[in-house]
Every structure is written in C-alpha cells, then in structure tokens.
Amino acid sequence: MSTKAATNHLFQTRIDLSADTRELMVTMLNRQLATLTDLYTQTKHAHWNVKGSNFWGLHKLFDKLAEDVEGHIDETAERLTALGGRAMGTVRMAAANSRLEDFPEDVHVGLEVVKVVADRYAAAGKEARQGIAQAMEHGDADTADLLTAVSRFLDQSLYFLESHLQADERG
Ligand SMILES: [Fe+2]
User: How far apart are the CA of 13 and the centre of ligand 1, in A?
Assistant: First the structure.
C-alpha cells in the first residue's frame, strides 16, 4: 500500500504532526483501544462470575478496575480521533483487533480468576509500553504521555491483583 493510500482515510487537522506519523499513531492507538475494550469486558466478566469466600472483595475490586479502564478507553479513542483517525470502537471490532487471550469459560474460583485477570493486565501493560516506545520514536510526546498514564494504571491494577497471590508465591 502506498503512503498516500495509507493516509487517505485520515481527517485533516491543524495538529503539526505529519500524516505518516498520525497514521502510525492511529493504527497503534486503535490496537490499544481494542485491547483495553477487551480488558474491560473480561474484568466485568470476572466481576459477575467470581465465586468463593473472598467473593465480595474481588467482586468490588473487579468493578472498580473496570470502571477505571473505561476512562482510559475514552482517552485513548479521543486521542486517535484528535489525530484525524476513526475509532474502531465496537466490541466486534475490539474482538477482531485485541491480542489478549480470551477468558477461559471454566474459571470461577476466586484466586484462579485473579490469576487470569492479572495475566490480562500484564499483557495490556506490555502492549501500552510498546506503544510508548513507538510514540517516542515518532516524536508524538502526547500519545506517549497518554499511554504512560495507561501503563501506570495497569501496573497499579496488577499490584492490587497480585497482592492476592503473593502470600502463596513467596520463595
Ligand atoms: Fe455490578
């Protein structure tokens, strides 16, 4: 695909980043959007389905995490639309573009659910850091800043999740 064809679908903007850079950022941010949307639905899935003696704490934790992910979804989508892109915002688009593994159907016991959710937050955090590196490489400090906030949130969420696991994982 030629550069011209690749950038044809961007809207014009007065932002002083090249069309090539904006195209790269839009593509990368749409992938981040898909991952975060997938992460949101998997976190709600955990919120609804978790069972066990620590049900209430986990039920509330997953709901709080999902609520916070939603805020980052909105920021991510509106950064890429600010760059002239179109947000691939539906769950079907997210399912097609997300690189996260799906939530296993037979997992519902408290700490097993925490392990699955922690794996997904770690994968999303890794992807956000890759996005930061790409944004810095192309001189888009604002996208890097946005994804830095995303990855900082994902790391903190991982701390909340892993704290349930670490008492059994010492040594
Ligand atoms: Fe709920």
Answer: 40
